[in-house]
Amino acid sequence: MKQSEVKELSIADLNEKLGALQKNYTDLKMAHAITPLENPLQLRGLRRTVARIATELTKRELQ
């Protein structure tokens, strides 16, 4: 998810996506610990998307 897509979402949508992506990231991380993923770059992409959404939420709270 690109930053431009994140900016278009409402706060409620961002919170909902953040929860879902954090759960997905945790599940993927656990699966990778047991059996290596075919594409471990998925973890990095997911982690960065979570960070983008969290940053946008913090930015909106400060405004």
TrEMBL record:
GO cellular component: ribonucleoprotein complex; ribosome
Keywords, sorted A to Z: Ribonucleoprotein, Ribosomal protein
Superkingdom, natural source: Bacteria
Pfam families given in the database record: Ribosomal_L29
One BP term from GO: translation
SUPFAM superfamilies listed in its UniProt record: Ribosomal protein L29 (L29p)
A single MF term (Gene Ontology): structural constituent of ribosome
Family, similarity comment: Belongs to the universal ribosomal protein uL29 family.
Designated name of the protein: Large ribosomal subunit protein uL29
Encoding gene, per UniProt annotation: rpmC
